[in-house]
Every structure is written in structure tokens, then in C-alpha cells.
Amino acid sequence: MTDFDEWETVVGLEVHTELKTVTKMFCGCENIFGAEANTHVCPVCLGLPGSLPVLNVRAVELAIAIGLALNSTVSPSTFHRKNYFYPDMPKDYQISQYDQPINVGGYLDLPDGSRVTIERAHLEEDTGKSTHLGGGGRIHGADRSLVDYNRSGVPLVEIVSGPDMRSAAQARSYVSELRAILVAVGASDGRMEEGSLRIDANVSVRRRGESFGTRCEIKNLNSLRSLGRAIEYEARRQIDLIKSGARVRQETRHWDEGLAVTATMRSKEEAEDYRYFREPDLVDLVPGDSWRDAVAGSLAPLPAQRRETLATRLSDPTAAQLDAVVVVVDLGFDGFVSAALDAGVGVALALARAANELAKDPDRARKLATSSFVSVLALEEGGQLSSTQAKAVLAELLETGGDPAAIVRAKGFEQLSDDAVEEVVAAAINDHPNEWARYAAGDDKLAQFFVGEVMKRSRGRANGKAVIAELASRR
Amino acid sequence: MTSAAATARAVREGSVSALSVVEEALARVGQRNDQLNVFLHVDRPGALAAARRVDEAVARGEDPGPLAGVPLALKDNLCQTGVPTTAGSKILAQWRPPYSATVVERVVAAGAIVIGKTNLDEFAMGSSTENSAFGPTRNPLDPTRVPGGSSGGSAAAVAAGMVPISLGSDTGGSIRQPAALCGVVGVKPTYGSVSRYGLIAFASSLDQIGPLATNVTDAALLLEVIAGHDPRDSTSLPEGSPALMAHLDDGVAGVRVARVRELIEGADDDVVAAVDAAAAALRDGGAIVDDVSIPELRLGLSAYYLIAPAEASSNLARYDGVRYGLRVSGDDVGAMYEATRSAGFGAEVKRRIMLGTYALSAGYYDAYYGQALKVRTEMIGAFRRAYARADVLLGATAPSVAFALGARAQTPLAMYLSDVFTIPTNLAGDAAVSIPFGVGEGGMPVGVQLLGPGRSEAGLLAAGRVLERARGDS
Ligand SMILES: [Zn+2]
Q1: What is the 3-state secondary structure (H, E, C) of A298-323?
Q2: Confidence category of residue B473, pLDDT binned at 50, 70, 90
Q3: How much is the ipTM here?
């Protein structure tokens, strides 16, 4: 019996998502990633004396969309100030929602059928970004710290789950599904590598059947991989502690990606007193039913619904195909697959190419024209491209873009004309009289022999179906 | 001195040049500023250039606006692009804002000429202008006395005849109390009627910008210019600027005035006598004058000294040495914060930051800040009930006439009591004006206070005009 038969991991997640608005949460500055430092700032997002926040309506709409997608109750809400000193926070307080969040309760169903409850999803503003030079990259002991306030005041929604997940794998699945939902409702670009999705994990362990253990909060989880590894490490650490007779201390821990360990940041006793109080510079945020209904009416189909839509087009799906459906929807490639199906491409082929070839480079794939994907698959379905050729053309399309027909020509995948096929078939028959005699006498297996010969002679440029037709006509 | 209204009329007609008006104002500032320490910064080149632009506009046949060529002073917690704005604090001694407050844009657009920035208690925390990091301002009527505060510089600038109108801010009485002590008119407008954008925050839920002037008409003229919705302030009321000038001579016939016991009790005899005289003058004007008691008002001071410091502790957190203003270096960022804030803030500001931090702390919130919010709600209810029976409440603005410099500087509680009659209006978000009425000890002016519900400025100013006429000087 392993420890994990006896022990259970309990995980709750706080996911911060940057909202994909044009402007920041409380000012007119552009909400943009990767610009030159401190070029998208103004008196408001720099917290200059006398400046005041004005709430971005689009941020509220996206927060409502997230709430609706997570089955939350969209509620009358207020803003509070969370007070603490940090150089990347220009006002030395963060405007956030506290005891009256805009989205209350809710749940998220995962593809495996499990349900994770949502406690709340509230609006808050992002901070600037610090870079600490020297001192191991942390503020304490740094020689010098640089702050970029471009991110200051970018709208965030923090989505807090219940302590409902029981494994690293389930936590990863929750984040994947959540990310797909955030992308689907237009709230996020889902780019974890750019920090647009950031995760804190609350992890505890207990012997099966017992009540919850003491939890630790793990910060700095910026990829699904880190999330999974950190949860596994932390559960192991806590089990070992308890088995050795010690107790788990409630604390905040930092995930060190390089060392693959979690380490203490601060204990519960050192936790800050944020002195929350109502933000007097903002009025209550009370989204009325008509506003909520308008957002609901404009909501794009959610991943679960899209998986359903795609699955119904599979007559007798295999487990692998259902997995492919999850991947395809998760990556947002179901539009490619549907378009290919509409163009008469077989579902197995369309799913396979989307789940395998497009998934190799999702960012580039999102920029690919649906029509390009469809035309390559149609050529493959029609036999004008072999599977190897089709994959090569797709890879080239992702790499450089451009016109599929031009890539097919440039790669020399363009097929022989009917006349040319006739010529090559004739030459093959001429060189292999014995095989031809057996084929002519009715041995169909030899068709493949001749197709292979023709392909060899044409360096793969013949259409297999055309070759078989030509052979049959000469029989 | 010539009123703002008369000056604007003359400049618009072309009978007087804005340049000559502004040069005279600058000359008067030059004569007395060394003695009184009214202005922290005089923008001579900016003022002269602005005056020339007004004169050019008049020459082209354009209308420069209702404040054409009128010299105006700004309390130094109002941001003006490129002009030093200190809030009376060492921590902002070198700071020049890259933007202007909405009220500054509005007065400039109306043709007013900003002469400079006036002294104040640091971050508007005080009632005597002695808490300024740049030295106290003296009362122009008796330089051994304080001008009141925190808008002491703006009140003194008007009282000294340096400018006919000025802007101050009122969080707990900071316009009305110095107006009373300097013998000028001061208006605390309804919360949300004047944009706070560009006002360096003290206590955001209480702060309101308002006018100071030698007379009611000029105060109304300036308030009309600065009031009205501003999309940059989320707490700004949706309405446009109220019509005030049109109602100035409405009088008080049939107006129900209630003299409030709690807004007089504890005041000096000379102050009480002035309030009684004002009641009589209003009655003579046709008002129905009554006496009422609103006991909840007694709770105002203690609630205020929890709510205002709590908000201030958060509003003043940003002065940390990282981005602007003073920085005193330290071994690490925490030491830098501490050194900067220790050196940059004065004693009263530190006292209130600590008070406010404490009031909001875990374990104390409910007993202090939470309780103060409940008192505030009570007070709003009490005022609402009072305004169901009266149109205007009457009381004193301050318990005494201007006191001697240094007299209360070492006793914070005595100083806090200077605002006991003005604080309730801020907690309720309502409107109130202080009108000079009579003289008291040492020949110093007494201010009486007229209070009304939100958006009652027109009525309060009309009642103020009645007192002004009764005084016989206009
Ligand atoms: Zn900005």
C-alpha cells in the first residue's frame, strides 16, 4: 500500500486572470503586455496625489461573463482598499472586492465529470512589476529594484475555488478547463507564460475519511506544470512531516521552479493586517438584471457545450477520439474541426490533425486561417496528398503561413496529370510483366504493388486513387 | 477691494485690463506676504501671461468667461500642471504635478487668473495653519493671531485683499472655520457637487472643494464655475452646476430657520451673541425662526476623528519615497520607507496616520472605525429629520474668534474642538456656509453658519445675502 492509498491531498485554488480589456481598470491607459517599461502610465495608475479611479465598464462586463460561465450569482458588490506597502503598488493599497464580491458561489464541471465549487470571483486591480537585481532576485537583499508600472491597474478577476480537488491531476484539469472558459468568454488570452493567468494553491493532506488538515498556500505557480509539481511536492512534504510526528504549520510558501521545492515565505503569525475598508473613491457596483442578461445573451458557447457539439458528430467515438475532442476544445481548435467536417473531411482525420499537428504550436495555430486548414485536409481526404505530405504542409503553414496550394507546389507535392499517370503506369507494367499477369488474372493484392512502383517512379506525386483506376481500366 | 463680479464685468467690457488687475494683486501680495506667509508659491510669470491672454481675447471680441481677469488663489493641495504643489508638507516639497485639478481647469477656462498657491495645515490636517511644514500663516486682521485652518492661506489671501476669491478644501470645517476667523465668506458645497479630481486627498469621503470670497455674490459666482458633474470623479453627482446667481436675492421670506442648540453650546459669549443677532436679522427678513436640539451632533467630533484619520492613513500611504517627493535612503526598502516618512511628515500628520491605522486594525475595526460609521449613519438620519422641519439650520461656525498663534498648538484636543460645529455637515455630506456677522473679542470677526441639506446651496447663499444686507455693508 502506498501513502497515497492511505492519504488524500486536498487542493483549493485561487486563480488570478488578467482581463483582456482595451484600457486599464480605473484609467484610460492601454492594457498591453510587453511594451517598453513605464510607457503606459498616467496620474491614476501611478497613484499620483489627487488622482481618482473611474471603473472600466468593460472590465465589469467581463467579470459578469466569468460569473455566468461559472454558474455564480451576479450580485450587488462594493470595492475595498487592501492596505500594504510594496514598491510595485503605487498607492500602497490595492483596490479589490472584499466581503461583497460581484460573483458569489458557483461551480465548474470538469471533463471527467467531477464538480469543483466556486466560492467567489471578484474584481481587483493588478500591481506593477518589480525586477530585483542582485540578492537572488528577491526584494530583500537586492542591490537595486526596478519597477514597471505598465501592469499597474490592469483589471483582474480572482476566482476562488472550494477545497474540492483531490489530486495534482485534478487541479491541472480544473485550471485547463477554467482557462478554456476564460478564453471562450473573451475575458482572457489564456497566456500563462505572459502571466495573464496566475495561480495560488492551498494544499493540505489528511488520512482518508478524516477532517481537513492544516493548509499551506503556495504562491508563484505560473504554469500547469509548476502547479502539478508543486502540489505533488507539497503533499509529499506534509505527509512526511506528519508521519515523522511533526505538525504542518499554516504558512505561505513559495514554489521554486529551479529547485523544484516549496519554501517558507511567511508564517501565519507574520501575515499582514490589510486593514480593509470601503474604497471611498468608488461607488457601489450594482449590476442590474438587464445588464446581466445582456452579457448572458452575448456569451459565446462554453467548452463543455462545444465538446458536446463536436462529440455528437462522432458516430461511435473511441476513447482516444474523446480525448482528442477535449484537447481540441481546450485549445480552441474546434472551429477548425467543424469547418473541416462541413467540407466533407472525415471526423477521425480532422480530429487527429487538429489534436496533433495544430497542437504542436497552439499560438501560431490560432493565427492560421480556417480555410487553409480545411483545404489541406480536403487534399489529404481526396488522396491528392499523402498523410506525410499533409502533415508537412500543415507544419509549413504554421511556420511561415502563406497559401497551402503554393506550399504544395513548392514542396513538389503537386500531383501528376492523368496523362502522366498513364505513362508511369504503362512503364511499370512493362517492367513487371509477371506481376501484371497475376493482377490481370484477378489478384487484387497486386494493385498495391503497382501503386508503390508508381509512387517510387513519380517520387510520391501520383494520386493513389488515380493509379488504381488506371490499373483497373487496363485489366 | 473691488469684488470679483465687478472686476470680471469691467474686464469683459474692456474698461479695465486684466493685466492691470493682476499687477495690482501681485503688488498687494508683495507688500504683505513676507509678514503673513499666505502664499507658498506665487506664479508671477504664469499670472501675467494668463492676464495678457484674457486681454487679447477681449480685444478680439471674445468673452473670456464669467471670471475674466479675476485674480484667484489656490489652496496648495490643488494640483496645477507644472506648478509646485506641496500640500504643506516637506514630503512633497519638490513635487510639480503633471496635471491640473478639474476645478483649476474650470476656473482657468472661466477666465480667472491663478496668482499662486496658499499655505495650509499639512495635508489639510489642522485648524490654524500652524501645522504647515513651511511656517504658520498669520491672520491679516491681527498678525498675532491664527487665520484658522486648514485653508488658512486661502482665507487670509482674501481677507488681506490680495485676491477677491480663492479655493479651499473642507473636510471637517477647513473652509468655513478660517473664513469665520478671517471675516470672509466660505462655502462647503454638497459632497459630490464639486469634483475632487486633482485635490490631494485627506479623507476622501469627507473632502470637498469650495470657494472663499469677500462677499456672498462672489462666492456664488465661483461656486457656479467649479460645480457640476465630472466623469473623472466617481463620487461626482450627475447634475450640472446649480443656478446660484439667479437666486441670490430670493430672500428668506417664509423660510423655516432652526437655531441648533448643539451648534452653539460651548461657544464664547461674543459668538453666541452674533448667532442671536443673525437669527433676529433672518426673522426681520421674513424667516420663521425656531430653536431645536439635535443631540446626535455631539457625537460628530469623535466619529470624525476615527473616520478621517482612517481614510488618511490609507490616502497618505503612497508617500513612500519610491516614485516622487522626498526620499531618504535606507539599508533596504523598509528602512527607506521609514526614514522617508519619518523625515517627511509633521507631528500632526503622523498622529493621525497612527490613529487611523489603529482604528482599522484587526481586532479594533468594529469598536472604532465600524462604530464611527454607525454614528455617521445616525447623524445623516438626524439631519434628515431636522430638515423635514426646517429649511436652514443656524449655528456658530467656530466656538471662538481667531486665537493667538501658538495658543492651541500643543493641545491637539483643544485644537480639534475648533471644528466641533462644522464637522457634522461633512459627515452628512450636506452643504453649509459661513457668513461674517458681527465682531467679538479684540474686534475680531465672528462667523455664523447656515446649514442645509444636499444641493441647498442656492437657499443658503440667499440667506447669506440677507445677513450681508442686515450687516449694512453691501
Ligand atoms: Zn493610467
Answers
A1: CCCCCHHHHHHHHHCCCCCCCHHHHH
A2: low
A3: 0.96
